[in-house]
Design brief:
Quinone Oxidoreductase, Chain A, domain 1, Rossmann fold, 6-stranded parallel β-sheet, 15 strands, 26% helix, globular
Protein backbone atom coordinates (compact mmCIF):
# COMPACT_ATOMS: atom_id res chain seq x y z
CA UNK A 1 0.00 0.00 0.00
CA UNK A 2 1.16 3.53 -0.75
CA UNK A 3 2.15 5.06 2.57
CA UNK A 4 0.60 8.38 1.52
CA UNK A 5 -2.84 6.78 1.67
CA UNK A 6 -3.58 4.31 4.46
CA UNK A 7 -6.37 3.03 6.72
CA UNK A 8 -7.01 3.79 10.36
CA UNK A 9 -9.80 3.44 12.89
CA UNK A 10 -11.01 6.97 13.59
CA UNK A 11 -13.26 8.01 16.48
CA UNK A 12 -15.28 11.17 15.80
CA UNK A 13 -17.55 13.21 18.06
CA UNK A 14 -20.89 14.04 16.43
CA UNK A 15 -23.79 15.58 18.33
CA UNK A 16 -22.48 14.29 21.66
CA UNK A 17 -22.09 10.79 20.18
CA UNK A 18 -18.79 9.06 19.47
CA UNK A 19 -18.73 7.28 16.12
CA UNK A 20 -16.04 4.73 15.15
CA UNK A 21 -15.26 3.99 11.52
CA UNK A 22 -12.35 2.97 9.32
CA UNK A 23 -11.18 5.91 7.23
CA UNK A 24 -8.49 6.69 4.71
CA UNK A 25 -5.76 8.99 6.01
CA UNK A 26 -2.51 10.43 4.70
CA UNK A 27 0.92 10.91 6.22
CA UNK A 28 0.19 14.63 6.52
CA UNK A 29 -2.60 13.77 8.97
CA UNK A 30 -0.11 12.33 11.45
CA UNK A 31 1.41 14.36 14.31
CA UNK A 32 5.00 15.53 14.45
CA UNK A 33 7.76 13.09 15.32
CA UNK A 34 11.16 11.92 14.13
CA UNK A 35 10.09 8.32 13.39
CA UNK A 36 7.55 7.27 10.78
CA UNK A 37 6.60 3.63 11.34
CA UNK A 38 4.59 1.21 9.22
CA UNK A 39 2.56 -0.70 11.80
CA UNK A 40 2.37 -4.47 11.36
CA UNK A 41 0.71 -5.34 14.67
CA UNK A 42 -1.13 -3.57 17.48
CA UNK A 43 -3.21 -4.84 20.40
CA UNK A 44 -6.46 -3.98 22.14
CA UNK A 45 -6.32 -2.74 25.73
CA UNK A 46 -9.04 -1.49 28.04
CA UNK A 47 -7.62 2.02 27.81
CA UNK A 48 -8.03 1.85 24.01
CA UNK A 49 -11.70 0.99 24.45
CA UNK A 50 -12.16 3.97 26.75
CA UNK A 51 -10.52 6.25 24.19
CA UNK A 52 -12.69 4.72 21.44
CA UNK A 53 -15.87 5.58 23.34
CA UNK A 54 -15.06 9.18 24.13
CA UNK A 55 -13.61 9.01 27.62
CA UNK A 56 -12.13 12.49 28.05
CA UNK A 57 -10.01 11.27 30.93
CA UNK A 58 -8.02 9.27 28.36
CA UNK A 59 -8.36 11.34 25.16
CA UNK A 60 -9.19 15.02 25.23
CA UNK A 61 -9.69 15.85 21.56
CA UNK A 62 -11.45 14.12 18.67
CA UNK A 63 -11.29 12.95 15.89
CA UNK A 64 -8.72 10.51 17.19
CA UNK A 65 -7.14 7.11 16.48
CA UNK A 66 -6.65 4.96 19.63
CA UNK A 67 -4.06 2.22 20.12
CA UNK A 68 -1.50 2.46 22.94
CA UNK A 69 0.60 -0.37 21.43
CA UNK A 70 2.31 -0.74 18.07
CA UNK A 71 5.03 -2.87 16.52
CA UNK A 72 6.33 -2.13 13.06
CA UNK A 73 9.13 -1.15 10.71
CA UNK A 74 10.68 2.30 10.44
CA UNK A 75 10.01 4.03 7.14
CA UNK A 76 11.60 7.40 7.94
CA UNK A 77 14.00 8.38 10.73
CA UNK A 78 15.74 11.63 11.58
CA UNK A 79 17.43 10.11 14.64
CA UNK A 80 20.71 8.26 13.93
CA UNK A 81 19.92 5.82 16.74
CA UNK A 82 17.23 4.24 14.52
CA UNK A 83 17.61 3.04 10.95
CA UNK A 84 15.15 2.69 8.09
CA UNK A 85 13.76 -0.88 7.98
CA UNK A 86 14.53 -1.42 11.68
CA UNK A 87 11.82 -3.20 13.65
CA UNK A 88 10.63 -1.33 16.73
CA UNK A 89 8.07 -1.44 19.54
CA UNK A 90 6.16 1.62 20.74
CA UNK A 91 4.01 1.32 23.85
CA UNK A 92 2.37 3.80 26.22
CA UNK A 93 3.73 7.34 26.68
CA UNK A 94 1.05 9.37 24.84
CA UNK A 95 0.53 6.93 21.96
CA UNK A 96 -3.17 6.31 21.38
CA UNK A 97 -4.18 8.74 24.11
CA UNK A 98 -3.75 12.21 22.66
CA UNK A 99 -1.33 11.17 19.91
CA UNK A 100 -2.69 9.21 16.96
CA UNK A 101 -2.17 5.58 17.90
CA UNK A 102 -1.59 2.03 16.76
CA UNK A 103 -5.02 1.32 15.24
CA UNK A 104 -3.54 2.76 12.07
CA UNK A 105 -1.31 1.41 9.33
CA UNK A 106 1.18 4.20 10.02
CA UNK A 107 2.19 6.16 13.12
CA UNK A 108 4.63 9.02 13.62
CA UNK A 109 6.17 9.40 17.07
CA UNK A 110 9.14 10.84 18.93
CA UNK A 111 12.07 8.44 18.82
CA UNK A 112 12.26 8.57 22.63
CA UNK A 113 9.13 6.39 22.69
CA UNK A 114 10.59 3.55 20.60
CA UNK A 115 12.42 0.39 21.64
CA UNK A 116 14.30 -1.76 19.13
CA UNK A 117 12.62 -5.14 18.76
CA UNK A 118 14.78 -7.49 20.86
CA UNK A 119 16.50 -10.45 19.28
CA UNK A 120 14.40 -13.56 19.75
CA UNK A 121 11.05 -11.77 19.61
CA UNK A 122 8.74 -11.31 16.62
CA UNK A 123 6.53 -8.27 16.10
CA UNK A 124 3.51 -10.49 16.67
CA UNK A 125 4.91 -11.69 20.01
CA UNK A 126 5.67 -8.11 21.00
CA UNK A 127 2.00 -7.23 20.64
CA UNK A 128 0.78 -10.38 22.38
CA UNK A 129 2.86 -8.99 25.24
CA UNK A 130 2.11 -5.30 24.59
CA UNK A 131 1.57 -2.76 27.36
CA UNK A 132 -0.15 -5.43 29.47
CA UNK A 133 2.86 -7.72 29.26
CA UNK A 134 5.30 -4.88 29.78
CA UNK A 135 3.37 -3.94 32.94
CA UNK A 136 3.47 -7.57 34.04
CA UNK A 137 7.20 -7.68 33.29
CA UNK A 138 7.83 -4.52 35.29
CA UNK A 139 5.86 -5.99 38.19
CA UNK A 140 7.77 -9.27 38.04
CA UNK A 141 11.07 -7.40 37.78
CA UNK A 142 10.42 -5.40 40.96
CA UNK A 143 9.02 -8.43 42.79
CA UNK A 144 11.88 -10.77 41.92
CA UNK A 145 14.48 -8.27 43.09
CA UNK A 146 13.55 -9.27 46.65
CA UNK A 147 11.37 -12.42 46.56
CA UNK A 148 12.69 -15.79 45.39
CA UNK A 149 10.69 -18.89 44.40
CA UNK A 150 11.67 -20.68 47.61
CA UNK A 151 10.27 -17.84 49.74
CA UNK A 152 6.66 -18.88 49.19
CA UNK A 153 3.54 -18.33 47.13
CA UNK A 154 2.92 -15.28 44.92
CA UNK A 155 -0.67 -14.12 44.52
CA UNK A 156 -1.90 -12.42 41.35
CA UNK A 157 -5.23 -10.58 41.13
CA UNK A 158 -7.25 -9.85 38.00
CA UNK A 159 -5.87 -13.15 36.77
CA UNK A 160 -7.82 -13.38 33.49
CA UNK A 161 -6.92 -9.84 32.39
CA UNK A 162 -3.92 -9.09 30.20
CA UNK A 163 -1.55 -8.13 33.02
CA UNK A 164 -2.73 -11.00 35.22
CA UNK A 165 -2.41 -13.68 32.55
CA UNK A 166 1.08 -12.62 31.56
CA UNK A 167 2.21 -12.21 35.18
CA UNK A 168 1.13 -15.78 35.94
CA UNK A 169 2.83 -17.13 32.81
CA UNK A 170 6.12 -15.34 33.52
CA UNK A 171 6.19 -16.22 37.23
CA UNK A 172 5.37 -19.87 36.52
CA UNK A 173 8.18 -20.07 33.98
CA UNK A 174 10.57 -18.64 36.58
CA UNK A 175 9.60 -21.37 39.03
CA UNK A 176 7.28 -19.45 41.37
CA UNK A 177 4.27 -21.03 43.05
CA UNK A 178 1.45 -18.79 41.78
CA UNK A 179 -2.02 -18.31 43.26
CA UNK A 180 -4.57 -16.64 40.96
CA UNK A 181 -7.56 -14.52 41.99
CA UNK A 182 -10.42 -14.32 39.49
CA UNK A 183 -14.11 -13.54 39.36
CA UNK A 184 -14.59 -16.04 36.54
CA UNK A 185 -14.90 -19.53 37.99
CA UNK A 186 -15.19 -21.07 34.53
CA UNK A 187 -11.63 -19.95 33.80
CA UNK A 188 -10.14 -22.04 36.62
CA UNK A 189 -8.78 -24.80 34.38
CA UNK A 190 -7.28 -22.30 31.93
CA UNK A 191 -5.46 -20.56 34.76
CA UNK A 192 -4.11 -23.87 36.05
CA UNK A 193 -2.94 -24.76 32.54
CA UNK A 194 -1.27 -21.35 32.31
CA UNK A 195 0.80 -22.07 35.41
CA UNK A 196 -1.23 -21.22 38.50
CA UNK A 197 -1.07 -23.85 41.24
CA UNK A 198 -4.23 -22.58 42.93
CA UNK A 199 -7.24 -20.42 42.02
CA UNK A 200 -9.19 -18.30 44.54
CA UNK A 201 -12.52 -16.75 43.60
CA UNK A 202 -12.68 -12.99 43.93
CA UNK A 203 -15.85 -13.09 46.04
CA UNK A 204 -14.04 -15.19 48.63
CA UNK A 205 -10.96 -12.98 48.79
CA UNK A 206 -12.40 -9.47 48.68
CA UNK A 207 -14.51 -9.79 51.85
CA UNK A 208 -13.72 -6.90 54.15
CA UNK A 209 -11.81 -7.83 57.27
CA UNK A 210 -11.21 -5.01 59.71
CA UNK A 211 -8.30 -6.68 61.44
CA UNK A 212 -5.08 -4.73 60.76
CA UNK A 213 -3.24 -7.88 59.71
CA UNK A 214 -4.26 -11.36 58.59
CA UNK A 215 -2.58 -14.75 58.74
CA UNK A 216 0.40 -14.74 56.41
CA UNK A 217 -0.10 -16.76 53.23
CA UNK A 218 2.05 -15.16 50.52
CA UNK A 219 5.64 -14.11 49.95
CA UNK A 220 4.46 -11.38 47.59
CA UNK A 221 1.79 -10.34 45.17
CA UNK A 222 0.96 -8.59 41.92
CA UNK A 223 -2.30 -6.64 42.18
CA UNK A 224 -4.07 -5.24 39.12
CA UNK A 225 -7.38 -4.09 40.65
CA UNK A 226 -6.87 -2.19 43.91
CA UNK A 227 -9.50 -1.84 46.63
CA UNK A 228 -10.29 -4.56 49.19
CA UNK A 229 -8.33 -7.17 47.26
CA UNK A 230 -5.14 -5.13 47.52
CA UNK A 231 -5.92 -4.50 51.21
CA UNK A 232 -6.17 -8.24 51.88
CA UNK A 233 -3.09 -9.10 49.81
CA UNK A 234 -1.00 -6.67 51.84
CA UNK A 235 -2.45 -7.88 55.14
CA UNK A 236 -1.75 -11.52 54.16
CA UNK A 237 1.85 -11.02 53.00
CA UNK A 238 4.65 -12.41 55.10
CA UNK A 239 7.54 -10.48 56.60
CA UNK A 240 9.77 -8.66 54.08
CA UNK A 241 7.38 -9.49 51.24
CA UNK A 242 6.80 -7.27 48.21
CA UNK A 243 3.45 -6.36 46.63
CA UNK A 244 3.20 -4.45 43.36
CA UNK A 245 0.10 -2.55 42.25
CA UNK A 246 -0.78 -1.20 38.81
CA UNK A 247 -4.58 -0.82 38.67
CA UNK A 248 -7.53 0.70 40.46
CA UNK A 249 -10.64 -0.67 38.75
CA UNK A 250 -12.02 -1.78 42.15
CA UNK A 251 -11.06 1.38 44.05
CA UNK A 252 -8.41 4.06 44.29
CA UNK A 253 -8.44 3.84 48.11
CA UNK A 254 -6.63 1.65 50.60
CA UNK A 255 -8.29 0.81 53.92
CA UNK A 256 -5.25 -0.13 55.97
CA UNK A 257 -3.21 0.61 59.04
CA UNK A 258 0.56 0.98 58.86
CA UNK A 259 1.06 -2.28 60.77
CA UNK A 260 1.82 -4.54 57.76
CA UNK A 261 4.52 -2.10 56.66
CA UNK A 262 6.04 -1.48 60.09
CA UNK A 263 5.62 -4.83 61.85
CA UNK A 264 6.25 -7.06 58.82
CA UNK A 265 8.42 -4.78 56.72
CA UNK A 266 6.25 -5.22 53.63
CA UNK A 267 7.00 -3.07 50.58
CA UNK A 268 4.25 -1.74 48.31
CA UNK A 269 5.60 -0.86 44.85
CA UNK A 270 3.60 1.17 42.34
CA UNK A 271 3.96 0.33 38.64
CA UNK A 272 3.33 3.03 36.02
CA UNK A 273 3.97 1.53 32.59
CA UNK A 274 3.02 4.72 30.76
CA UNK A 275 6.08 6.67 31.87
CA UNK A 276 8.44 3.91 33.00
CA UNK A 277 12.09 4.93 32.40
CA UNK A 278 13.47 3.77 29.06
CA UNK A 279 16.51 2.00 30.51
CA UNK A 280 14.21 -0.28 32.52
CA UNK A 281 11.89 -0.78 29.54
CA UNK A 282 14.81 -2.09 27.52
CA UNK A 283 15.83 -4.46 30.33
CA UNK A 284 12.30 -5.82 30.68
CA UNK A 285 11.69 -6.17 26.92
CA UNK A 286 14.93 -8.12 26.55
CA UNK A 287 13.97 -10.43 29.41
CA UNK A 288 10.54 -10.95 27.83
CA UNK A 289 12.24 -11.90 24.57
CA UNK A 290 14.37 -14.54 26.24
CA UNK A 291 14.18 -16.09 29.71
CA UNK A 292 10.80 -14.58 30.56
CA UNK A 293 8.99 -15.37 27.31
CA UNK A 294 5.80 -17.22 28.35
CA UNK A 295 5.84 -20.88 27.33
CA UNK A 296 2.22 -20.83 26.21
CA UNK A 297 2.27 -17.40 24.59
CA UNK A 298 0.45 -18.55 21.46
CA UNK A 299 -2.43 -19.89 23.59
CA UNK A 300 -3.32 -16.58 25.24
CA UNK A 301 -4.26 -14.38 22.30
CA UNK A 302 -6.77 -13.91 19.50
CA UNK A 303 -5.70 -12.28 16.23
CA UNK A 304 -8.10 -9.92 14.45
CA UNK A 305 -8.22 -7.58 11.45
CA UNK A 306 -8.89 -3.86 11.45
CA UNK A 307 -12.44 -4.60 10.26
CA UNK A 308 -13.08 -6.77 13.35
CA UNK A 309 -11.76 -4.21 15.82
CA UNK A 310 -15.00 -2.28 16.34
CA UNK A 311 -16.83 -5.36 17.63
CA UNK A 312 -13.97 -6.31 19.96
CA UNK A 313 -13.97 -2.83 21.51
CA UNK A 314 -17.58 -3.36 22.58
CA UNK A 315 -16.77 -6.81 23.98
CA UNK A 316 -13.81 -5.65 26.09
CA UNK A 317 -15.99 -2.95 27.65
CA UNK A 318 -18.51 -5.66 28.55
CA UNK A 319 -15.80 -7.81 30.13
CA UNK A 320 -16.32 -10.53 27.53
CA UNK A 321 -12.84 -10.75 26.04
CA UNK A 322 -10.43 -13.40 27.24
CA UNK A 323 -6.68 -13.06 27.08
CA UNK A 324 -4.97 -10.76 24.60
CA UNK A 325 -6.47 -9.42 21.37
CA UNK A 326 -3.86 -8.71 18.69
CA UNK A 327 -4.57 -6.55 15.64
CA UNK A 328 -2.74 -7.60 12.47
CA UNK A 329 -2.40 -5.30 9.47
CA UNK A 330 -1.95 -6.61 5.96
CA UNK A 331 1.73 -6.67 5.04
Amino acid sequence: MNQNNFKALVVEEQNDQFIRRIKNKTIDDLPAGDLLIKVHYSSLNYKDALSATGNKGVTRNYPHTPGIDAAGIIVESSNPKFSINEKVIVTSYDLGMNTSGGFSEYIRVPSEWAVSLPEGMSMQEAMIIGTAGLTAGMSVYRLTEHVKPEDGKIIVSGATGGVGILSIAILAKLGYNVVAITGKEKERNDLINLGASEVILRKDFELEDKRPMLKTQFAGGIDTVGGPILDNIIKSTQAMGVVTCCGNVASIKLNLTVFPFILRGISLVGIDSQNYPMRYREIVWNKLAKDWKPKKMMDIYTEISLEELNEKIDLILQGKLKGRTVLKFDA
